[in-house]
Amino acid sequence: MASGGLQLLGFVLAFLGWLGIIISTAMPQWKMASYAGDNIVTAQALYEGLWMSCAMQSTGQIQCKVYDSLLKLEGNLQATRALMVAAILLGLVGVFVAVTGMKCMKCMEDDQVKKMRMAVFGGVIFIIAGLSALVATSWYGNRVARAFYDPFTPVNTRFEFGSALFIGWAAASLALLGGAFLCCSCPRSETSYPPSRGYPKNAPSTGKDYV
C-alpha cells in the first residue's frame, strides 16, 4: 500500500509539472522590460516569449506580434524552443507509460514485474523531461541576467525575469520530483533465505540409562 501511494503521488506531481511546462512554453512573459532607470517610459509594459512579443498599454490593451521567421531568430532562442517542445513531448510519452504501470490500472495485471518496470520507465521519462525544461529555462534566464548586467546594454532596453520563467522552474522541479517518486515506488524483492533446519531434539532421558 505504501508503494502504491508513493506511485500515485509521483504521478500527480509529474503530471502537474508537465502541465506547467506546457503553460510556461505558451506564455509570452519569458522576460519583461525593466523599469530600474531614470529615463523609463512606464506607459507600456513590454514582454517577450518564445513565440511572440507583446506590449501592454496603460489602458490595459495588449498587442502581440508573432515572430515572423524562424530562420531570423537567434540560435539560443531556437535551442530553448526545441528543449521546451522536447520536454512537452517526453512528458506526453511519460504520461502514457506511467499510467500503464500504475497499480490502480488494470493494464498488464498478469505480469506485475513488467507493470512495475513500466512505472519506473515512465518516471525516468519524466525526469528527462524535467531536466530538459530546467536546462531551457536556466539557459534563457542566464542570458537575460547577463544582458541586464552588461554595461553596454542601454538602460531602456534591459529586461528582467518574466513569470513564465518562474513557472517553468517550478514545473521542472515538480516533474523531476514526481519522476523520482515513480522510480522509487517499485518495491524491492525480498531476499529469500533457505528454510532453517531444526535441530534434532534430544530424547528424554530415563533412569534406565544410568547405572
Automatic annotation (TrEMBL):
- Grouped into one coarse class, the protein's main location is other
Region (Disordered) residue spans: 190-211
Give the domain of life: Eukaryota
Q: Which UniProt keywords apply?
A: Cell junction, Cell membrane, Membrane, Tight junction, Transmembrane, Transmembrane helix
Q: Where in the cell is it found?
A: Cell junction, Tight junction; Cell membrane
Q: How does it sit in the membrane?
A: Multi-pass membrane protein
Write one Gene Ontology MF term: structural molecule activity
Q: Which GO terms describe its cellular component?
A: bicellular tight junction; plasma membrane
Q: Which Pfam families match?
A: PMP22_Claudin
Q: Which InterPro entries match?
A: Claudin, Claudin1, Claudin_CS, PMP22/EMP/MP20/Claudin
Q: Where are the transmembrane segments?
A: 7-27, 79-99, 119-141, 161-184
Family the entry assigns: Belongs to the claudin family.
Job description of the protein: Claudins function as major constituents of the tight junction complexes that regulate the permeability of epithelia.
Can you name this protein? Claudin
